[in-house]
Amino acid sequence: MANLAGRAVLIIADRAVDVAEASAGRFGPEPEAVFARWPEFSDWVGDLADLDGLSGVPIVASELGAPSPRPPQVFGIGLNYRDHAEEAELDIPAEPMVFTKFPSAITGPEATVELSSDRCDFEAELCVVIGTGGHRIDPDYAWQAIAGLTIGQDLSDRRVQFRDSPPQFSLGKSFPGFAPVGPWLVTADELADADDLGVRCEIDGEVMQDGRSSDMIFPVAQLVSRLSSVVTLLPGDVIFTGTPAGVGAVRQPRRYLKPGQVITTAIEGIGSIRTTLA
């Protein structure tokens, strides 16, 4: 599922099928309306006898928005890859390190983002979008509470994040456009192994991060269960699940982002997003 010009669409091969039109008004047109009825929507898609027979339009990348454009809650998980904790010379956490990226930072998969300082950093991330959600979700049920997976780029202004003690993770990661997400939502059943996906980040074609989600300290199901042990997860919520090694702030020498650069963030089985920096 994707967000094409503000409307929920199904991605079938190389075309987009409008959900509201295909369902004769039963769902949509806004993506939020679909997440609010995710189990019913999933059943409807599963019952469609001829997906290839649905009429659609060509996918225009520049018109794609974030799959969940107005998430009620956005969660970030720090130090959730073993190799990233090791490169930062920090202990492996015993509990997930949780912060938020405020929802106003969400933007689409082909965004132009203005850098807020000379110390902005990149972090390729697998993102979870919640479907049914709930409170105190059992790990064995967690994947059933998830709508699907998508790609995120966790941009961070390290100058703001670490300008005082204690650090301001949420503020440093929430400037306008600092949460590009997309290009679409992929359900777990479309992936060979949803817990082992390649995660890659390139800047102007240079590979900066190249890891696998199987290196997560707290896998997706554990994150959903542990977050929901405190908060109620809501339809459309987005979870940034952490980043592999290679971020700019711990490189020697450090590598911060510059205007004019292009970040390509890719995840195996899902696709890629492109963020142009200004």
At a glance:
With 278 residues, this protein is of the alpha+beta class. It is built from seven helices and 19 strands.
Keywords:
2 domains, FAH, 7-stranded mixed sheet, Fumarylacetoacetase_C_sf, Fumarylacetoacetase-like_C, isomerase activity, 31% strand, 2-keto-4-pentenoate hydratase/2-oxohepta-3-ene-1,7-dioic acid hydratase in catechol pathway, alpha+beta, Fumarylacetoacetate hydrolase, domain 2, 278 residues, 5-stranded antiparallel sheet
How would you portray this structure in words?
The structure is a single chain. By secondary structure, the protein is of the alpha+beta class. It has 2 domains: 2-59, no CATH class; 67-277, Fumarylacetoacetase-like, C-terminal domain (Fumarylacetoacetate hydrolase, domain 2, Alpha-Beta Complex). The protein is built from 7 helices and 19 strands. The chain has helices at residues 19-22, 31-35, 38-47, 82-87, 158-161, 169-172, 220-228, and strands at 2-4, 7-12, 15-18, 57-58, 64-65, 74-78, 97-100, 106-107, 112-113, 120-121, 124-130, 146-153, 156-157, 179-186, 198-203, 206-212, 238-240, 262-267, 271-277. The strands form 4 sheets. A 7-stranded mixed sheet has the order 7-6-17-11-12-14-8, with no helix packed on it. A hairpin with a 2-residue loop joins strand 15 and strand 16 (206-212). The longest helix is centred in the N-terminal third of the chain and has 10 residues, at 38-47. The chain is globular, with a radius of gyration of 18 Å. The mean pLDDT is 95. GO terms for molecular function: isomerase activity; metal ion binding. It holds the Pfam family FAA_hydrolase. Residues 74-277 form the Fumarylacetoacetase-like C-terminal domain. Belongs to the FAH family. Keywords: Metal-binding.
